Amino acid sequence: MKKLLFQLDTDNKPSAFDIVVAYDGGADHVSSYASITPDNVKPIVEGCIFTRAPKDKKNTAIFVGGSDLDAGQQLFEAIQKQFFSNFRVSLMLDSNGANTTAAACIAMLTKVANVKGMNAVILGGTGPVGQRAAVMLAQEGVQVSITGRQFEKTKKVTDTINKRFSVDISPFAAPELQDRQEITKNMDIVIATGAAGIVLLDAATWQNSQTIKLLADANASPPAGIEGIEMMDKGNDRFGKKTFGSIGFGSLKLALHRKCIEKLFQANNVILDANEIYALAKDMIKEQ
Question: What is the pTM of this model?
Answer without folding.
Answer: 0.95
